[in-house]
Amino acid sequence: MIFPYKREYCCYHINDIKYVLKHRSPFLFLDKIIQIDKDNIWATKEINKKDLDFLGHFPGMSIMPGVMQIESMAQAANFLLLHNRKKPENFFIYLISINYAKFRLIIKPNDNLLIYCKINNNLKRNIYTIYGIIYINNSIASESEFNVKLVQNKT
Fold first, then answer.
1. Quick check: is 93 in a domain?
2. Which of 36, 75, 106, 131 is the most buried (most CB within 10 A)?
3. Which one is catalytic: 13, 23, 57, 83?
4. What is the rounded CA–CA span in Å between residue 33 and residue 16?
5. What is the DSSP letter of 89?
């Protein structure tokens, strides 16, 4: 596979991801963050049959639903926006709109997802436009542009 990022970097593993994100299995769609900077993130997720069987999508022919593909991009964006905050547990990120989404390949068990997200722009103080792509074997499986809102937990 041709990697468009610097391969020697491996920034965060699953326990680091769980520290920043509130998601848990079976709804955590990131395994590793392999590169991150101020505006970009590269993450991975290995899809196994167990991940897709809980969805029942579809019995006998498990595939990853498009909404879960967008969720995996949104989780990568969530990590990108929260990882440098002093207390990430005090913040939530909400998906507030999907500007567009394209699904080009079927994602099946044993596929290894390479997830890329970048911050396209900061619309308002706490609203961001994110562009995300999921690659499988150097091919674009899906892409999306969506907006997220960063909200501080008031408890």
1. yes
2. 75
3. 57
4. 9
5. G
CB 30 within 8 A of CB 1: no
13 in catalytic set: no
Q: How many domains does the chain have?
A: 1
Distance CA 135, CA 143 (A): 9
- The values of phi and psi at residue 120, to 5°, are -80, -45
Q: What is the residue range of 40's domain?
A: 14-152
Q: Assign 26 to helix, strand or coil.
A: coil
- What are the pLDDT tens digits along the chain (155 aa)? 344 545 445 688 888 899 899 888 878 999 999 999 989 999 999 998 777 665 666 777 888 999 999 999 999 999 999 988 888 889 999 999 999 999 999 999 899 999 999 999 888 889 999 999 999 999 999 999 999 999 998 76
**Global confidence as pTM:** 0.89
| 140 close to 104: Cβ distance less than 8 angstroms | yes
